């Protein structure tokens, strides 16, 4: 199949985020979104929720231990007492409180490949969920950035319209004064009053739009906007084809679709395992006391090997396999549809960006010409070659040109943000946002062994700290042979040595359990799936591909090619 190397094909260059005292820039707004937006926090919680499915899949291949205990009040009547008490005759009635306790250990040995397939399926599900989190981050950054430029545009539009109302108010006063001295007409006054009312209506609409934009900003960022500075400029791909190629490699929704399709392939193996034999080994310990018999105490132990072979399930197993195959086919078609949708989105956004840039250049020329025309018409009115209506029309044209420039500047910024978002780099990592990024791997690293070695992880380091305080002094700045670092004090060096040994022992225990339960090949952490940050200036080709699904998607040391989509949506 065709290698899909998600390497960065373009670089993003940002200007410095700076501003006056108490001013707010785009970086500040996006940091607030990244740190506090409840929608993004919810998506992170969703990822941690999905992480648990991988832990649950691993647990199905490990041994389980269960205990039981019972206390019973019992009564019994024996027609032949001699069976209970030798030499006795007649019947015998007895009562007692039998007690029983037991312990059972079950170790699955073979489950038809279900555990490995389920781990692969859930692992790919975790990777898809990570891409979904990245997609949500891109979407929220896009919405917040659009709200940012909307507020800036609407604040300036309201200022321009207020100034226009002030100018028209003075013109109305001048027209009224000329009419009072007989140098003007009632028509001039009426025209000025009409334009004044129109300008006031426009100001009311502008203030309403500003209030709406501020409300959106507060919802996304979490606070009122304050002295917003111009957004930074981002370097974009050279052309639409380069933008499409970058989106094909980096768009999180598309990469997530690839992972979902691969998970669909693993789901087929999960379904097939239900029709295969299973082998398990169980051990039982039991203790019985105060039984209603002449044997009052019984201790027993048993080891059982059990083989279960499905013979007939009414067609359910084959149905589940067919269902999984249909689901895989559906996911394959959905992936192809996502590819075409990404191409469509990039093409449309690129066209909008091109049009917005051309429009901005045109309306800037329009604004310059309208200002010159207004100045000329005003001078001509003063010498009597132009009337009041000419001045009012020139004022309106100048106002419209200024508002058009604001809209065009906003549209260029919005199209730029949209293009970065659909490419998949409008996130904290892609734009080098100065904030501590959320580690998508951390939760899974913590929980993958919880319940198995939780007590060891919790109490061994504390025990090591207590022991370390009693260790004899050793030379200061002594080198730790294991870690090849330096301790700051003899006590710290001793404690760190014990803690390191305890950590090594804990890892050894985890490795041993996984080896016994047949999971040692899946020991490595799920790392390597985070996309490398887009570099900023100076521009240079990236040295590490962002993502290569054919090599090792989860960095577990195993080739994942068998679970990846082929070039055809149907096998």
Strand content bin: 5-15%
Poorly predicted regions: 1-21, 453-502, 520-555, 559-571
State the separation between the terminal residues, measured CA to CA. Answer: 12 Å
Q: What is the third-level CATH name, the topology of the largest domain?
A: Outer membrane efflux proteins (OEP)
Coarse morphology: elongated
Radius of gyration: 37 Å
> How many domains?
3
The total of beta strands comes to: 6
Helix content: 55-70%
CATH class term of the largest domain = Mainly Alpha
Following the backbone from N to C, one meets helices and strands in this order, namely HHEEEEHHHHEEHHHHH
Mean pLDDT: 77
What's the CATH superfamily of the largest domain, by name?
Outer membrane efflux proteins (OEP)
In CATH terms, what is the architecture of the largest domain? Answer: Up-down Bundle
GO molecular function: efflux transmembrane transporter activity; porin activity
InterPro entries: OMP_efflux, T1SS_OMP_TolC, TolC-like
Subcellular location: Cell outer membrane
Keywords: Cell outer membrane, Membrane, Signal, Transmembrane, Transmembrane beta strand, Transport
């Amino acid at each position: 199949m065709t290698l899909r190397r998600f390497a960065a094909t373009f670089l993003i260059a940002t200007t410095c985020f700076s501003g006056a005292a108490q001013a707010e820039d785009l970086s500040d707004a996006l940091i607030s979104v990244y740190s506090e937006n409840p929608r993004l926090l919810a998506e992170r919680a969703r990822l941690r929720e999905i992480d648990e499915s991988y832990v649950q899949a691993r647990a199905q291949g490990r041994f389980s231990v269960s205990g039981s205990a019972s206390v019973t009040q019992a009564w019994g009547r024996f027609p032949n007492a001699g069976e209970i008490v030798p030499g006795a005759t007649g019947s015998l009635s007895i009562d007692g409180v039998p007690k029983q306790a037991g312990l059972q250990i079950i170790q699955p040995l073979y489950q038809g490949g279900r555990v490995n397939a389920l781990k692969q399926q859930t692992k790919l599900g975790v990777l898809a969920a990570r891409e979904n989190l990245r997609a949500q981050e891109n979407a929220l950054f896009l919405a917040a950035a659009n709200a940012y430029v909307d507020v800036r545009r609407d604040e300036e539009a309201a200022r321009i319209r207020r100034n226009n109302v002030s100018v028209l108010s003075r013109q109305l006063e001048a027209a009224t004064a000329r009419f009072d001295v007989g140098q003007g007409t009632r028509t001039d006054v009426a025209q000025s009053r009409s334009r004044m009312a129109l300008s006031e209506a426009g100001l009311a609409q502008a203030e309403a739009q500003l209030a709406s934009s501020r409300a959106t900003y507060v919802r996304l960022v979490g606070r009122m906007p304050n002295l917003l500075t111009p957004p930074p400029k981002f370097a974009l791909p050279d052309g639409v084809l380069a933008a499409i190629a970058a989106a094909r490699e980096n768009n999180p929704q598309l990469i997530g679709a690839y992972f979902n399709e691969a998970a669909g392939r693993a789901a087929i193996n999960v379904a097939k395992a239900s029709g295969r034999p299973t082998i398990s080994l169980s051990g039982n310990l039991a203790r019985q006391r105060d039984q209603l018999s002449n044997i009052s105490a019984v201790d027993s132990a048993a080891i059982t090997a059990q083989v279960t072979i499905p013979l007939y399930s009414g067609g359910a197993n084959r149905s589940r396999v067919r269902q999984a195959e249909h689901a895989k086919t559906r996911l394959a078609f959905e992936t192809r549809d996502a590819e075409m949708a990404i191409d469509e989105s990039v093409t449309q956004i690129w066209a909008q960006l091109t049009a917005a840039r051309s429009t901005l250049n045109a309306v800037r020329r329009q604004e310059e010409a309208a200002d010159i025309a207004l100045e000329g018409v005003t001078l001509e009115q003063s010498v009597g070659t132009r009337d009041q209506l000419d001045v009012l029309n020139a004022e309106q044209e100048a106002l419209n040109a200024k508002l058009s420039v604001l809209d065009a500047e906003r549209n260029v910024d919005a199209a730029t943000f949209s293009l970065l978002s659909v490419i998949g780099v409008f996130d904290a990592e892609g734009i080098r946002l100065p904030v501590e990024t959320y580690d998508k791997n951390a939760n899974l690293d913590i929980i993958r062994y919880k319940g198995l070695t939780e007590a060891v992880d919790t109490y061994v380091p504390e025990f090591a700290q207590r022991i370390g305080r009693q260790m004899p002094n050793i030379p200061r700045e002594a080198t730790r042979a294991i870690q090849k670092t330096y301790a700051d004090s003899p006590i710290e060096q001793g404690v760190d040595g014990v803690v390191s040994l305890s950590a090594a022992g804990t890892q050894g225990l985890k490795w041993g359990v996984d080896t016994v339960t047949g999971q040692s090949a899946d020991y490595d952490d799920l790392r390597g799936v985070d996309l490398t940050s887009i570099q900023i200036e100076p521009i240079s080709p990236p040295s590490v591909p962002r993502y290569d699904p054919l090599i090792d998607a989860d960095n577990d040391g195993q080739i994942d090619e068998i679970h990846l989509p082929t070039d055809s949506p149907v096998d």
